């Protein structure tokens, strides 16, 4: 069983505070976080939980898609997966809510028709471990297409 760890150090209050998240397991880096920048249009050099979720979802989905294509009898050549995570105020419960994730997938695949690829892409959306972890998100939209 693999365990991956990240740690956030935070100083100050919600609006005036700031912190950094460190990717402990991989040592891949440390990234600044700030609540005001989390909900602003421009991140200005800081990341957010939603951006980290987008990165995790895009990475997980692309790995799972590669396996799904092979299991369906195709040969994966390449793919690009973009995850757009929308955060908005939670009007019912207060705080914030991840209201939507849009996965945009473009892939080059040998041995599958566009319809077979669409089926694999949809199955991957359900089967990817990060998708499963995000099951409470009201809407996960998939836009998947083969590239020539």
UniProtKB/TrEMBL annotation:
One of its GO terms (biological process) is response to oxidative stress. Residues 1-21 are annotated as: Disordered. Pfam families: OsmC. It comes from the Bacteria. GO terms for molecular function: peroxidase activity. This is OsmC family peroxiredoxin. It comes from Mumia zhuanghuii.
């Amino acid at each position: 069983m693999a365990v991956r760890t990240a740690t956030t150090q935070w100083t100050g209050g919600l609006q005036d505070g700031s912190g950094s998240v460190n990717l402990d397991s991989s040592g891949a880096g440390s990234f600044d976080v700030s609540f005001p920048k989390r909900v602003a249009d421009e991140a200005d050099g800081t990341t957010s939980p939603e951006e980290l979720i987008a990165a995790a979802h895009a990475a997980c989905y692309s790995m799972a898609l590669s396996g799904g294509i092979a299991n369906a009898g195709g040969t994966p050549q390449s793919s690009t997966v973009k995850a757009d995570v929308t955060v908005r105020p939670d009007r019912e419960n207060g705080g914030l809510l991840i209201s939507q994730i849009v996965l945009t997938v473009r892939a080059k695949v040998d041995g599958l028709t566009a319809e077979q690829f669409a089926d694999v892409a949809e199955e991957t959306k359900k089967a990817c471990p990060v998708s499963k972890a995000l099951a409470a998100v009201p809407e996960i939209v998939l836009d998947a297409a083969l590239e020539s």
